[in-house]
Structure formats: C-alpha cells, structure tokens
Amino acid sequence: SQTIHQWPATLVQPVGSPLSLECTVEGTSNPNLYWYRQAAGRGLQLLFYSVGIGQISSEVPQNLSASRPQDRQFILSSKKLLLSDSGFYLCAWSVGKVNTEAFFGQGTRLTVV
Amino acid sequence: GENVEQHPSTLSVQEGDSAVIKCTYSDSASNYFPWYKQELGKRPQLIIDIRSNVGEKKDQRIAVTLNKTAKHFSLHITETQPEDSAVYFCAASKVAGGSYIPTFGRGTSLIVHP
C-alpha cells in the first residue's frame, strides 16, 4: 500500500534561518506531488506542485522554493525565513496522470520566531 | 485560474440534525470534486467525491450533489454525531497542461453539540 512520510512534525526556527521540509512517498511511481500551507481561516493554499522529477510549478510567488530530486521525494525550502512563513505545511500526493483524490502527510507545524 | 468559494465558514448544529455545506467553482473544465474532513491537529482525509458525469452520490449518512450548470456542489450530512465535528474542505480539480490541480475552498468548521 502507499504511504506518505513528512517530517518534522513541528519546527521552531528563528527569522532569517533556512528551512528544509522533506516529504517522501512509498508504494507508487510517478505521483503528482503537492505542497500546501494552511493558515487559520485561509484554508489550504497550494504552494507548489510537481508532475515529475525536476518539474516544479509555483502557484504563489513567495519566499519559498521546492525541488523534486527523486521521483517520490519532494522538498520545500527557504533560504531566509520570515515571520509570515509560520503555518501548517502539508505535503500531498495523488496518482500520476489521473484526476483523483490527494493523500496528505501528517503536516509540519512551523513557527518562525 | 480556478476559484472555489465555500459557505458557511462555521456551522453549529445539534446532534441528530442535518448539516449542509455549499461550494461554488468558476472553471467549467473542473470535473472532479472531492470533500475532505480534517479533525483537529490531523491531516485532511477524503470522505466522499463526485465526478462531473454524476449528479449525486451517497455513502451512508453523507451525500454530495453537483449542479454543473450552476457550478455548485454541496455536502449533506444527516443524523449528525459529535464525532462529525471537524473542518470540512471542498475542492474542484481539473487537468491543466498534464497537471492535476485541486483548488480548495476555505473550509467549514462543523460543530455538533451533544
């Protein structure tokens, strides 16, 4: 069966520090991969999505970037965190080349102090 | 791009009552409409979905309806129970340039009072 791993679960980082959140998927090949941010009262905001290795599309211009170095690995990064980057970050995957449900990771609660 | 509006933002009901959450979408190319439930501190999980070739789908106490002409779809929960309390998200998804991109509504916080 397919599983998705996202870590860490919680993270407290100072302003100006770098960020790296990692997400891996097991049990499937060529998944669609997504990074979402969930802020209070704003629902699920799509940050990045990827349909293949090295293929990244950004939905919202911001202080973050994403990379997909391997088929089932998706990384969210920042060179210098801002206070406004605080939030709940969710990685998700869906079956490649099919329009169907997304499966979410456990999420990372990021607090920038 | 797609825009999904979801109402209400908060819904409070008594146990046993019905709850209805409504969503509208803007892009007629959207053809897949999932609903997710997110309990406090947990990840969103799919509870029901509907495709554009179907007008209604039911799974026990949960049903979803879709009106393609009006571009709106709704989630109906009957005989609500306290464990139904959670945030519910609707989404509209389409294929765009080989990508499969779901756009989510802002969520509805459902509170079921015992």
What's this entry about, in short?
The complex is a heterodimer of chains A (113) and B (114). Chain A has strands at 3-7, 10-13, 19-26, 32-38, 44-52, 55-58, 65-70, 73-78, 87-94, 103-104, 108-112.
Helical content of chain B stands at: under 10%
Q: Biggest sheet of chain A: strands, sense, closure?
A: 7 strands, mixed
Oligomer: heterodimer
On the 0 to 100 scale, the average pLDDT of chain B is 93
Task: Describe it.
The complex is a heterodimer of chains A (113) and B (114). Chain A has 113 residues and is mainly beta. Chain A has strands at residues 3-7, 10-13, 19-26, 32-38, 44-52, 55-58, 65-70, 73-78, 87-94, 103-104, 108-112. Chain A is built from no helices and eleven strands. The N and C termini of chain A lie far apart (38 Å). Helices cover 0% and strands 61% of the residues of chain B. In chain B, the strands form two sheets. In chain B, strands 2, 4, 5, 9, 10 and 11 form a six-stranded mixed sheet that branches. Chain B has a five-stranded antiparallel sheet with strand order 1-3-8-7-6, with no helix packed on it. The N and C termini of chain B lie far apart (41 Å). In chain B, 35% of the residues are buried. The model of chain B has no long low-confidence stretch (mean pLDDT 93). Classes of the chains: A mainly beta (113), B mainly beta (114). Chain A binds chain B through residues 32, 36, 41-44, 46, 49, 51, 57, 90, 94, 97-102, 104-107, and chain B through 6, 9, 31-32, 34, 42-46, 49, 89, 93-95, 98-107.
Secondary structure elements and pairings:
The complex is a heterodimer of chains A (113) and B (114).
Chain A: E1 3-7, E2 10-13, E3 19-26, E4 32-38, E5 44-52, E6 55-58, E7 65-70, E8 73-78, E9 87-94, E10 103-104, E11 108-112
Parallel strand pairs in A: 2-11
Antiparallel strand pairs in A: 1-3, 3-8, 4-5, 4-9, 5-6, 7-8, 9-10, 9-11
Chain B: E1 4-7, E2 10-14, E3 19-25, E4 32-38, E5 45-51, E6 56-59, E7 62-67, E8 72-77, E9 86-96, E10 99-104, E11 108-113
Parallel strand pairs in B: 2-11
Antiparallel strand pairs in B: 1-3, 3-8, 4-5, 4-9, 6-7, 7-8, 9-10, 9-11
